[in-house]
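Write out the 3D structure for:
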Amino acid sequence: MIKKSSSASIGLVVLIALANFVWGSVWIFHWKNTGELRSLNTASSDITHIFTQHLTVSAISIAVFLISIITLRSSFVKKMRMSVKGKRQCILMFVCLAVWVVISIYAMLTKHDKLTVGYSLFYYLIFIAFFEEFIFRDVLPELIRNERTILRYLLPNILFGAVHIFSYAGWGTISFSFVLRFLISQMWYYIGFGCLMQLIKEKSGTIWIPVLIHAVWDSLYILK
């Protein structure tokens, strides 16, 4: 039987992920219906507007980040594994950062719309890679750190996969058949990717390695 404290921690994990998902989805659906939703590919045409939209969608993640700093105070860096120290961490950090820089330079040199490319790199690094890793591989596993390993890995990353269902649908209509296709063809990818990033964070001892790997992976979309 699950203890009360354990149940509360699991409930909090689900609540944070659900709040993040609902908040972002409501705003995106609203903007889409009013014709205000801006595509990342057209960032240069109205960069202030699209940045404001991204900032709004990320409000829950930003709030969780600030609450974590206030709550943990001096132990924030250690608990959230925000530091980089030791030879192994530095080498891994350097390699990941170097790959991201190479992709960034190549994209800037080969793509015509430099402003959109620059903003896209920033978006994938901060709004996607950092906040997703911080929430789903840092905060949520930390809240259930005393649970069994399988639950500590699977719960946050099942939630990580679930919050991508609307974006996978292009923010269109969600039907039962679509959900079934998503579960069969995509859900396993998100869970696997998330568990791998969590493992890398725990083995490397720093959140910055998975953040950069995540940023590198997503930034490849810019090269298409």
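DSSP finds ten helices and no strands in the chain.
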